[in-house]
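Sanity check

After download, print the first record. It should look like this:
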Amino acid sequence: MTMPRPFDRSLLAQALLGLLLVALAFALHGVQTAPPPAPPSCARLALAGVLLLVWLGCSAIPFAAQRRRRPPPALTVDGDDLLVVHASQTGFAEQLARQTAAALQAAGVGLRLVSLGDMTAAALQGRRALFIVSTTGEGDAPDAAWRFVRRAMAQAATLDTLRYGVLALGDRSYARFCAFGHQLEHWLRLSGAQPLFDLVEVDKGDAAALRHWQHHLRSLGGHAEMADWRAPAYQRAELLERRCLNPRGFGAPAFHLRLKPPAGAGWRAGDLVEIGPCNDDATLERWLCAAGIDANAMVGTGAQRQAVGVALRDRLLPAIEEARGVVHEAELTAWLARLPPLPHREYSIASLPQDGVLELVVRQVRDAAGRLGLGSGWLTAHAPVGAALALRVRVNRNFHLDDHGQPLLLIGNGTGIAGLRAHLKARVAAGQHRNWLLFGERSAQHDFFFGDEIAAWQRAAMIEHVDLAFSRDQAERVYVQQRLAARRERLAAWLADGAHVLVCGSLEGMAPAVDAVLREVLGASAYDAFVESGRYRRDVY
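Expected structure tokens:
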């Protein structure tokens, strides 16, 4: 639906000016035909002054409107600031851009918030930029973005040093869902820009898609804690088993988790789970002690009444200074109500519903002080086996496969094996054997996750090719992208045969290097057609 354009106030000013001139003409005619007037009174002089001011004001409005319609000067960007760029029709995209900017600024990220209509292609070069854009009408750009569309997007630019992310807003009831977001992303890719992560589509403000966007924002903010804009409606899943996959590996410990899925939960290969973590007992105890708050003090009313130590388990803990002196029950209850819940964490699902369990692969992450990360610490160390975890299965259409038996190339490293394993399981279950796996980690002896399972599939002829890159097993480091580059001929033959490509794993290093190999093998025009065909899917982080 196309939004009506705003009323032009300069037209109103011109009409008022015309009426004033007509009235003045009648007045002058009266002066010419009347007898000589008496000297004017003070009241008449004051009235004449008011009319003169009104006339001058009305005359100035059209010129001011013309000045407003002049294009603003080209935006110049200094320093290494991140750009948060919005193109809004009804205001929703601008609202989300402001929320995005506020979340990143709170995490210490320097940025600039700008309208897409005020941008130039030159201002994007050498930057990082997040685009939050709406689609209006039948797939059109918002009115505020048309200057950029006409001037910058009419042809490819040189943006090889730009890294970007796109949040596309739309409505699936329209045939061209999120069309302008995809048009913008196509132009960025054609101009040589590199994605920070895959485009995120939002259907009518879908909260889960917006949380996925926030998940990406955390990586830009150094994985700083950012409260969810809208908390997910979690279900409960029992933690059945937790096993370290690399107890003597070179890298941080990675764990294989098996959970009993929530009742009625369904998913397909490529989908994710959102986990609601909790503060661990030791951290919570230290915080309560420093704040001078009794963990057993009761808060809440009725069925919601509970000990403050329990109520704080899934809440963001504020600075100690904000909590000192809050001791009375009414104060504690009101204070707790203002604390946001802990932000969710996302993980690729490594199993299928028919397996009867929901499986994850989670690597422990630590900060500079050696403290375990919020999500990985909760899942790999603090949550006891048998505990009920807060969980929500989330559809991830960007990593689904339209499977019609075509060849499939699966590329990943580290814990990225989780998303690839689910797709391999689905292919094996369907009897589709044209699969080629490229996987990288540090050591074949200690870090070949699910190695026995992969070897069994290969022996059963369910995987045609397996290429492995273990970086620490030789003097010179070898990575997945190098293995892929060394198989150029096979890669070209598979792509010519209609192969789909799935990439899951590291955003830094692996994913852009694999993308560069695909560009080189396919060529620029064929690469663009390949991406637009939907045969290239990524889940990188």
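If your output differs, re-run the checksum step. Summary of this record's structure: The chain has four domains: 82-220, 235-278+343-397, 281-337, 401-540.
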